[in-house]
Write a structure and sequence with these properties.
One of its GO terms (biological process) is argininosuccinate metabolic process. It contains 16 helices and 18 strands. It is of the alpha/beta class. The longest helix is centred in the middle third of the chain and has 20 residues.
Length: 491
């Protein structure tokens, strides 16, 4: 684990510095997912380019090598809690709260609201799950302006892909026939990190900015319950009098908190390494077709290259390990496949889904790399799984997806099902080649040393293993119930 370097809020711009025994090297990565100028501009608007100064023993590929950034902000005088609110539940009884913090309007307002209504210190926590450098830019200054006592940022990208995305991929988990669970998988890894940070900083509560109408409040809080039931949970949207954006802006002005945004996107978006979701505006009417300029990760299939592109995925025990012969870390693999898939318009999903709280909602998702990986793993299973195993796996995958969507990642049932999925895909090792062309994926090759396909058996030519004459007796026995039923009807 890299040692941590605290830095003062007076430093500008923010530097992500990590210290280890080896010499420093400069690691820069581009988040642009398409060479097409128009798409590239949109992706750059979303993600930007990140450049990080790192000192380490090597690349981080697992959850135990998470990079952590801490900003210790100036101490603030303890706020006084009003008598009108001091006797409401936990108000006045909490000392320090870890807040899931994005730096947007809502979370910027939540910081002073917590201090005013609960009289506690607020530690802002931000997780990097691949949402883009633009989302992380300037967080230190925003947290300071809002009144936070500390900012903690953790790079969870490799952990997110390796320990959350890949198990869902191996299980074949898809919610309601379409949704590849991009937001659902991200919430438990963030909430788990919040529990860890709460222990590190000595907090007695955690808080989030989820509304009372959505799924995310459940996902966060079930993770808190599962990992540390002693932590108190504060959900301002279920308590405060703020009813919308204008109220939040007025509250921010009243408490001298700079409004972090002046222009509101017409869409509500959530992004990470796996996907980008779009909700709101014209999408709230399922009859409306999405606008072409809404998409940011994928080019319109009509404008995709006129020449198809082949991509080869190597898989070991249900988990992808190589792209076109190159071994990549989980996060870097997904970045590369997002680039390739986005260029060909792969992974656009438009669906109406059933939220956990009961209402239906319409969302549009872009999951280019994830769509490629799902196609590859499922195709390889056609070689390595027998009929009964495949049917049982597919039926359990529905329940697995439901548990993940509902925020029950740390539920013993999901963990037990994951053990089954790991065992059943032990022989799902091989390679699949896919052809990408204008939004479509075609399988062109699949190979596995554990393949159950036997050409000598499947061939129309006669062989020693399968005697075609045996089929007559099989059919008579297999069809016996139908013959008996027919005989009853004719008597």
């Amino acid at each position: 684990m890299a040692q941590l370097k605290s830095f003062s809020s007076s430093h500008s711009p923010t530097t992500f510095a990590f210290h280890g025994p080896e010499r420093a090297h400069q690691a820069c990565w581009s988040r642009k997912l398409n060479s097409t100028l128009e798409l590239g501009a949109r992706v750059n608007e979303l993600y930007g380019n990140a450049c990080v100064s790192i000192r380490s023993n090597g690349p981080s590929v697992g959850s135990r090598n998470r990079q952590v950034i801490r900003a210790t902000l100036p101490s603030y005088k303890e706020p006084e809690i009003s008598e009108a609110t001091s006797n409401k539940g936990l108000r006045g009884k909490l000392k320090k709260v870890v807040l899931a913090y994005s730096g947007g309007l809502d979370t910027s307002v939540i910081v002073p609201w917590l201090r005013e209504n609960y009289g506690c210190e607020v530690v802002c926590f931000t997780a990097d799950v691949g949402q883009g450098i633009k989302e992380l830019d300037g967080l230190e200054a925003k947290a300071k302006a809002s009144g936070a006592c500390q900012l903690v940022v953790k790079d969870l990208r490799e952990e997110f892909v390796k320990d959350y995305i890949f198990p869902c991929l191996r299980a074949g988990a898809i919610y309601e026939r379409k949704y590849l669970l991009g937001t659902s998988m991200a919430r438990p890894v963030i909430a788990k990190a919040m529990v860890d940070v709460a222990e590190e900083v000595g907090a007695d509560a955690v808080a989030h900015g989820c509304t009372g109408k959505g799924n995310d409040q459940v996902r966060f809080e079930l993770t808190f319950f599962a990992l540390n039931p002693k932590l108190n949970v504060v959900a301002p949207w279920r308590e405060w009098d703020i009813t919308g954006r204008e109220d939040a802006i007025e509250y921010a002005k009243k408490h001298n908190v700079p409004v972090p945004v002046t222009k509101k996107s017409i869409y509500s978006r959530d992004g990470n390494l796996w996907h980008l979701s779009h909700e709101g505006d014209i999408l709230e009417d399922p009859a409306n077709e999405p606008k072409k300029d809404m998409y940011m990760l994928t080019v319109d299939p009509e404008d995709a290259p006129n020449q198809p592109e082949s991509v080869k995925i190597d898989i070991v025990s249900g988990i992808p390990v190589k792209v076109n012969g190159e071994t990549l870390s989980p996060a870097n693999m997904l970045l590369e496949l997002n680039r390739i898939g986005g260029k060909h318009g792969i992974g656009r999903i438009d669906m109406v889904e059933n939220r956990l709280v009961g209402m239906k909602s319409r969302g549009v998702y872009e999951t280019p790399g994830g769509t490629i990986l799902f196609a590859a793993v499922r195709e390889l299973e056609s070689l390595t799984l027998d009929r009964e195993t495949m049917q049982v796996k597919d039926s359990l995958a529905l329940k697995y997806a439901e548990l993940v969507y509902a925020g029950r990642w740390f539920d013993p049932l999901r963990e037990s099902m994951d053990a089954f999925m790991e065992k059943i895909t032990d022989t799902t090792t091989g390679s699949v080649t896919l052809k990408l062309y204008k939004g479509s994926i075609t399988v062109t090759s699949r190979e596995s040393k554990h393949s159950l396909y036997r050409q000598d058996i499947s061939s129309f030519e006669s062989g020693d293993i399968y005697d075609q004459a045996d089929a007559a007796g099989f059919i008579r026995l297999y069809g016996l119930p139908m013959r008996v039923r027919a005989m009853l009807g004719s008597s």
